[in-house]
Write a structure and sequence with these properties.
The protein is of the alpha/beta class. Helix content is about 40%, strand content about 15%. It has a seven-stranded parallel sheet, with helices on both faces. The chain binds nicotinamide-adenine-dinucleotide.
Length: about 270
């Protein structure tokens, strides 16, 4: 039996940072429940590759791709123009793009110097993508969503580090989770609450999702230390957030706004 509460047939959803590890997963989440998607990223080559895979799997949905740099207002405006030209009625925005430093084989991470050595240019880069980017996309695409009588949703992708501090003891000596990540992720929760109350009368709901760490190619030693901090004793698989995205994007979560859905294997309760 079809569950109409979860059905997004004919609805367009735009994802930022869609060429990344989770971005592609968000596309699957939406396409599985019949949505049309607009995938955006600065990496157009990867988007092309992902589009080819998705078309094969979801032949009845519309899958559009476009280059968009969320840190540049001019780039966002271009995409707004493009989708208006196509007469697309936007229903949903997923603010997913961020600079998310991954732990590499040598256990190092991008911008992982000690706090005392943080460079202003790195701070500004992280904030411009993860926080300013989400604000700008919400400004332009949120406006499009509220112009629809039926409204829509914004989902901000935060992290378990939106509610807890990083435990630097899991990294190797001299490596620290960048302070920018904590600030961006705590900030995005503020943006979520602000938008939920700002557009409360416009049928736009805004919620955040806070994923815990996802298993990719992290070194075994690092995974072992990280698992120890997670009550479920493992990292997430990248597809374990699909259900939550479907819930937050659809009528199944109609009475929910301004909240942060934390899915972290219990990490933040310890
Ligand atoms: N991977 C995890 O373990 C994890 C855990 C919790 C939260 N998250 C959050 O999930 C989201 C996605 O993470 P991910 O693991 O897929 O990261 P990722 O690095 O794999 O993907 C991020 C994507 O953002 C794009 N991007 C970078 N700068 C951009 C810009 N200026 N404009 C547009 N796109 C830009 C990149 O090209 C990349 O495709 C992030 O917000 C991240 O913080 C990830």
């Amino acid at each position: 039996m079809k569950n109409i509460k979860y059905d997004l047939k004919n609805k367009y959803c735009l994802i930022t940072g869609a060429a990344g590890l989770l971005g592609e997963e968000h596309a699957h989440s939406l396409l599985e429940i019949n949505a049309n998607v607009i995938l955006t990223d600065i990496n157009i080559k990867k988007l092309n590759f992902i589009k080819k895979k998705l078309i094969k799997k979801y032949p009845t949905s519309k899958i559009l791709i476009t280059r968009m740099d969320v840190s540049k207002e001019s780039s966002i405006k271009k995409v707004v123009k493009k989708i208006k030209k196509k007469k697309v009625k936007l229903y949903c925005l997923i603010n997913n793009a961020a600079i998310d430093a991954k732990v590499k084989k040598n256990q190092k991470m991008l911008n992982s110097s000690s706090f005392e050595k943080v460079l202003l240019q790195d701070w500004e880069k992280h904030l411009s993508v993860g926080l300013t980017g989400a604000m700008l996309c919400s400004k332009y695409f949120g406006r499009m969503i509220v112009s629809n009588k039926s409204g829509g949703v914004i989902i901000n992708v935060a992290s378990d580090l939106s509610v807890i501090a990083p435990n630097h003891r899991i990294y190797s000596k001299g490596v620290f989770k960048p302070v920018m990540y904590s600030v961006v992720k705590h900030g995005i929760i503020g943006l979520t609450k602000y938008l939920a109350t700002y557009w409360n009368n416009k049928r736009l709901r805004c919620n955040a999702i806070s994923p815990g760490p996802i298993q990719s190619n992290q070194p075994k030693k690092f995974i072992k230390k990280l698992k120890f901090q997670i009550p479920l004793n493992r990292l997430a698989s990248k597809n374990e957030y699909r259900g939550a995205i479907q819930f937050l994007c659809s009528d199944a979560s109609n009475y929910m706004t301004g909240q942060n859905l934390i899915i972290d294997g219990g990490r933040s309760v310890w």
